Automatic annotation (TrEMBL):
Residues 42-438 form the Nitrogenase/oxidoreductase component domain. Belongs to the NifD/NifK/NifE/NifN family. Pathway: Cofactor biosynthesis; Fe-Mo cofactor biosynthesis. GO terms for biological process: protein-containing complex assembly. Keywords: Nitrogen fixation. The gene is nifE. It comes from Prosthecochloris vibrioformis (Chlorobium vibrioforme). This is Nitrogenase iron-molybdenum cofactor biosynthesis protein NifE. Gene3D superfamilies: Nitrogenase MoFe cofactor biosynthesis protein NifE, C-terminal (3.40.50.12380), Nitrogenase molybdenum iron protein domain (3.40.50.1980). One of its GO terms (molecular function) is nitrogenase activity. SUPFAM superfamilies: Helical backbone' metal receptor. This protein may play a role in the biosynthesis of the prosthetic group of nitrogenase (FeMo cofactor). It holds the Pfam family Oxidored_nitro.
Length: 453
């Protein structure tokens, strides 16, 4: 295989950890380099994946039909009740709409859909074309909200405005308009909101069950299995727990500023981080020691059951190498720890939306020789997987073909998966999936590390 070079203009977004290396001066939080075929999604997609799991709200994409088709049912976010979120509505703008404007079409669509489905709220997503033609969706939303008596919320997510993280911000701005509009009556002192948990394959239910077993009331989950009425009264909780920091820290900070609710950053992946997430909440409510007692009992029970099972997988997985490329860098921390628990090392750690602190944290966690990369692309990922002789690639749907073409195992840790990977039971599912993929006999027939075609 010919040596693959890093694109000019991306050199400062790729580092290899070396002995004696100082703090990582990595370039990040920038727009993607033109022509690099970034693995990132657009601003619109970023807002859509955050708000999509609100199950009793209407979600309508104002733009051409392709935007709605691209983001239809893209999360494995399940609901315990309504499933309005799984229907992808669009104003389906055509050439004449672009010329004369789409406001009338948006208004008519909203009235028709609200009358038919009776949603608790409606989210209206602006796409690139709306930013170009200048439709005033705020005015349309305000008019419909007054006529129908429900929140009709503009989501300013024109795809060209920035990166996926800007879509997260647009989603938080929309949610903040709902927070604080409901009654907090009946909410106790020992209560939390779970932020940045999207109930992929039912993970929010697992986490909620843990906290409730400790004696903690969960007021709202934003946005997994989300309900508009719960979000309305979420300002009555005593603490916000933020799982996906990239998508929800902005909302947590705004709720802290406006309502005085402190927040904690946690991760629910892996034994160590899941346990810490429970202990940190218990420490916050230290005036009620039985919460910590319940947390310790829960962790002891789960770990004593899980640990022997992990050791069975370790016998085969120890010494194997993994490459990690995920959306948020905070998730990569947990994955490195989880893989380490079965003796696997990480030779590549990268993300789409990490910041300097995230990458410095990865540098401290990783072994010498590990490649740390921001906003990578398929050619770069292939290069590092081959050069570092990885046995496994952990990523999302866009990384899956890379792994299979190179003849190595793959684990889907993104939002389309159907198996829960959070919590203690999720840790077992994760390591089992890693084992099944890495140790599959099919790889003997693949052109293992045979280069790029």
């Amino acid at each position: 295989m010919e040596k693959i070079e890093i694109l000019e203009g991306r050199q400062r977004q790729v580092f290899e950890k070396q002995e004696g290396q100082g703090a990582l001066d990595i370039a990040c939080e920038t727009t993607s380099l033109s022509g690099s075929v970034s693995q990132r999604a657009c601003v619109f997609c970023g807002s859509r994946v955050v708000l999509y799991p609100v199950a009793d709200a209407l979600h309508i994409v104002h733009g051409p039909i392709g935007c709605a088709a691209y983001t239809w049912d893209i999360r494995g976010a399940v609901s315990s009740g309504p499933e309005l979120h799984r229907m992808s509505f669009s104003t389906d703008l055509k050439e004449m709409d672009v010329i004369y404007g789409g406001e009338k079409k948006l208004y008519k669509s909203l009235i028709e859909l609200i009358d038919q489905y009776q949603p608790k709220a409606a989210f209206i997503y602006s796409t690139c074309i709306i930013g170009l033609i200048g439709d005033d969706i705020d005015a349309v939303c305000k008019k419909v909200a007054q006529e129908k008596g429900i929140p009709v919320l503009p989501v300013h997510s024109e795809g060209f405005k920035g990166t996926k993280k800007d879509g997260y911000k647009a989603a938080c701005d929309a949610l903040m308009k709902v927070v604080g509009t409901g009654s907090t009556e009946g909410i106790g002192k020992y209560s939390i909101n779970i932020l940045g948990e999207f109930n992929l394959a039912g993970e929010a239910w697992i986490i909620k069950r843990y906290y409730e077993e400790m004696g903690i009331e969960v007021v709202a989950t934003m946005t997994g299995d989300g309900r508009v009425d719960d979000i309305r009264r979420s300002h009555g909780a005593s603490l916000n727990i933020v799982q996906c920091s990239g998508s929800m820290v902005k909302l947590a900070k705004e709720m802290e500023s406006k309502y005085g609710i402190p927040y904690l950053r946690v991760s629910y992946f892996g034994i160590e981080d899941m346990s810490k997430a429970l202990y940190d909440v218990a420490k916050h409510f230290s005036d009620r020691p039985e919460i910590m007692d319940a947390a310790k009992a829960l962790v002891k029970r789960e770990v004593s059951s899980l640990y022997p099972e992990l050791q069975k997988f370790r016998k085969e997985l120890e010494g194997k190498k993994a490459a990690i490329y995920v959306g948020g860098a905070f998730k990569a921390f947990s994955l490195i720890k989880a893989l380490g628990s079965v003796g696997m090392s990480v030779v590549l750690a990268g993300s789409q939306t990490g910041n300097k602190d995230d990458y410095e944290g990865l540098r401290e966690m990783c072994d010498e020789g590990t490649v740390i990369v921001d906003d990578s692309n398929p050619v770069e990922l292939s290069k590092f997987v081959l050069e570092k002789e990885a046995d496994l690639l952990i990523g999302g749907v866009k990384e899956r073909p890379i792994a299979y073409k190179l003849g190595i195992g793959f684990c889907d840790h993104n939002h389309e998966r159907k198996i829960p990977l959070a919590g203690f039971e999720g840790m077992y599912n994760f390591i089992k999936e890693v084992y099944n993929s890495v140790m599959s006999p099919v790889w003997q027939f693949a052109p293992r590390k045979g280069g790029l075609s």
